[in-house]
């Protein structure tokens, strides 16, 4: 199982969606359809990777009744999970979606506090020998060290497992220094390296800091990858409108799958798939889903330029 | 325990309150403080009656994990409950409260479907012999007959128990015909009897239909009571600003407590207490709470006129 993709979601959530006629501030609303599913950026990565045919293992913390609902939903979705129990209650997020225009208004609970013992238990049960790659994404729950992702990357290296880490700011620099494949977007890259940095030079800077590679999404301008072998830019397929939430997670899923197959993949090919998957994610209304037919249609059409 | 006040909440809920900086439609919000408690109009009635020193028994349906949380919270609040289990999951309501101005935006789930067997089980476990009065308020869950309150009132009469029923529209007329003490507000009264009816003549019409008495809240104009002995109007104490949600339930609690003591209370005295309790409920930010000191200060100050 060298290809197994572990997806780390330290701040797992039960994502609840309420459909309403139209959200009015100060109003009282009758909720129509209610949907509940496991959420957090790492879960989106796991869903997309599974949809693309890869073996995944969802990792994270679950606590209380809400944690049980998250675990149940992962099971029902066919996602194998290895979850570390915690004493505090798993968080919820609530999305209010207008029936009229599909616009969403989001409320994110901060999440349960993870104790030092629970953080150690998470590491102790990590099945390093089975993992082809470990993809980490999303916010950190209270109690977890702020350099949690860098710590995971360092531990992974000890076990010869590559990590793909989607983060921003200081955590992005720390993950690069720890030798991870780093994933971010243009805004977060500039948060970390300064407003005047270009996406291309920023991605290269991350590899100079130690990152095995850097893959930066650049919104309507496509995507950039850098490794010690070069830098590439992929152009977007076409203007796609829809729900951009989860597009970056689709990119992370493709990157993780590529690294699980080969530690030094052909980044120009990876970018082709990543751009197609991100665009195919925008077509679907729910983060974590992708339009597989659109993905397959677009994947060979993506133009990649070596810089 | 002739004075025991049974409070019926057919559509019990777990009321969840999220504090946010300011609600922006289409935005993503970090949730600050989270509060959860048992809710539904009947629970507000039970809380206020208990705060005023009366013995209460909270009745309703609970299902699933959310039902367990509701039952736990009622227990923690010191409210004795006799709950009928159902197979569907108890509903939640979510209130988003702005930190800046305290304004609330509310989302109400419709509620679980109650089966015919569950509805019969609810009646079968009703402890008629222990009840001094039965107060019914709030929305009906799916599956319960639309004339549920009238059915309860008729069953109660068979057991010589008076009911206080807070409802509107057709259900208000049916409750009156069933001989209940009916509770409503001016808008709901006009929904039932026509736009041109005054609150006083509407209240009298309800007693002519068969209601033991009718108590109608009239917003800033105070409150009206009618029985076969007369009609009274109570004037509001002073302009009170705050949270009007739950003010009507405080009125219902006072009416139920009075009827539990004496089936034909002095309605002018009841109105004094009801106006004071409603105003004291507006002072508190949470429905079901009242400012007991303000209640005691205002209660002797309320002016009641016989019409």
UniProtKB/TrEMBL annotation, chains A, B:
InterPro entries: PfkB_dom, Ribokinase-like, Tagatose/fructose_Pkinase. Keywords: ATP-binding, Kinase, Nucleotide-binding, Transferase. Gene3D superfamilies: 3.40.1190.20. Transmembrane segments: none annotated. Residues 21-285 form the Carbohydrate kinase PfkB domain. GO terms for molecular function: ATP binding; phosphofructokinase activity. It holds the Pfam family PfkB. GO terms for cellular component: cytosol. NCBIfam families: 1-PFK (TIGR03168). Belongs to the carbohydrate kinase PfkB family. This is Tagatose 6-phosphate kinase. It comes from Kribbella amoyensis.
């Amino acid at each position: 199982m060298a290809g197994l993709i572990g997806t780390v979601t330290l701040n797992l959530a039960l994502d609840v969606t309420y459909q309403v006629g139209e959200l009015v501030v100060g109003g009282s609303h009758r909720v129509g359809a209610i949907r509940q599913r496991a959420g957090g950026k790492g879960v989106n990565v796991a869903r997309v990777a599974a949809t693309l045919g890869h073996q995944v293992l969802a990792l994270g913390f679950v606590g209380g009744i809400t944690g049980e609902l998250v675990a149940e939903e992962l099971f029902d979705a066919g996602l194998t999970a290895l979850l570390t129990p915690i004493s505090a209650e798993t968080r919820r997020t609530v999305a209010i979606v207008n029936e009229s225009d599909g616009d969403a208004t989001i409320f994110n609970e901060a999440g349960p506090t993870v104790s030092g013992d629970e953080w150690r238990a998470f590491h102790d049960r990590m099945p390093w020998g089975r993992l082809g790659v470990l993809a980490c994404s999303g916010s950190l729950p209270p109690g977890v060290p702020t350099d949690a992702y860098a710590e995971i990357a360092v531990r992974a290296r000890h076990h010869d497992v590559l990590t793909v880490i989607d983060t921003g700011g200081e955590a992005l620099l720390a993950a690069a220094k720890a030798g991870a494949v780093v994933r971010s977007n243009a805004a977060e890259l500039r948060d970390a390296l300064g407003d005047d940095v270009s996406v291309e030079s920023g991605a290269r800077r991350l590899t100079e800091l130690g990152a095995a590679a850097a893959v930066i999404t650049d919104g309507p301008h496509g995507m950039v990858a850098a490794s010690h072998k070069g830098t590439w830019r992929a152009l977007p397929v076409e203007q796609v409108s829809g729900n951009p939430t989860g597009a970056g997670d689709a990119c992370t899923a493709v990157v993780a799958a590529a690294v699980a197959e080969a530690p030094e993949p052909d980044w120009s090919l990876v970018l082709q798939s990543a751009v197609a998957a991100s665009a195919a994610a925008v077509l679907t209304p729910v983060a974590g889903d992708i339009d597989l037919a659109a993905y397959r249609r677009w994947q060979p059409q993506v133009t990649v330029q070596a810089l």
